[in-house]
Amino acid sequence: MNKLDVLAAMVSDLKPDILGITQSWATYSMLDCELQLARYQMLRCDRPSEHRGGGVLLYVRSSLQPTEFHTKSQYGEHVWCQIGDLLVGVFYRSTNDAVVGGDNELKLHQVL
Fold first, then answer.
1. Quick one: pLDDT at residue 49?
2. Is the dihedral of CA 99, 71, 36, 38 positive or negative?
3. Which of 24, 68, 91, 110 can pair with 55 through a Cys bridge, CB separation 3.0 to 4.6 Å?
4. At 41, which CATH number?
């Protein structure tokens, strides 16, 4: 949240089609409108609030008409969208077993 203005300025300057953010530190108490960037569709996956850090955001230019894509994986912090025939995703791989559990690598491979 403390760097959202810098992110918005950088996006305005560079105009990327797709932007993936890891370590968003967003929580369920934050509204989508607080994280939204103009002309982009945002998809998010927050880390459960009992653990600090983590979380991912995926911004896709609205003109690309992305649709959210859900996997059947139990992997914790990931989000995907479909743009035509293309799947685009972003995920955060924590090494903290207390947060993600001991089978995190297996779950990650299942997502991929």
1. 67
2. positive
3. 24
4. 3.60.10.10
